[in-house]
Design brief:
This protein has helices at 24-52, 60-78, 86-99, 105-134. The protein is an all-alpha fold and 142 residues long. It has one domain (24-129). The two termini are 33 Å apart. Keywords: Membrane, Transmembrane, Transmembrane helix. Pfam families: DUF4233 (PF14017).
């Protein structure tokens, strides 16, 4: 399906509307922060697996320290979602979590699941931005 040129932008039946009363991006940033906190908790719970099952590369204390450091970085990044570099930080943390597969396979599997969650969050953000641009959000016509 071909995209329409920019001058043929489809607007909603009520027109472009005004700026939304409540910023929808604020809610999406909240979802992102909550996801980072949840992912940090899951990484900390994964420490029990790392401590009991020695299947990674290197000594257990190094594996344990790596997973702990990534979890702490996730908690810290949850408070930085308003920063301009938040997207890069979020994806960088996902790469660090995926590298955790060398600490333990379970950590890598959890990272893959959360990478899917992050892809979906960014997809939803793109959809909301497009709907805002076209004037299709209900709060733009109140």
């Amino acid at each position: 399906m071909a995209r329409k040129p920019a001058e043929e932008l489809e607007m909603g039946p009520l027109g472009p509307g005004h700026a939304p009363a409540n910023d929808p991006m604020k809610g999406i940033r909240g979802v992102m922060a909550g996801t980072l906190v949840l992912e940090g908790i899951v990484m900390l719970l994964g420490l029990t697996v790392v401590g009991r099952v020695d299947s990674g590369l290197g000594p257990v204390w190094l594996q344990f320290g790596y997973v702990l450091a990534v979890a702490v970085l996730m908690f810290a990044a949850a408070f930085m979602q308003k920063a301009p570099a938040a997207d890069k930080i979020n994806w960088g943390l996902q790469v660090l979590a995926l590298i955790g597969v060398f600490a333990n396979l379970v950590i890598g599997v959890m990272a893959l699941i959360f990478i899917g969650v992050w892809w979906y969050i960014y997809h939803l953000r793109k959809v909301v931005q497009e709907r805002m641009r076209r004037g299709l959000l209900p709060s733009q016509h109140v």
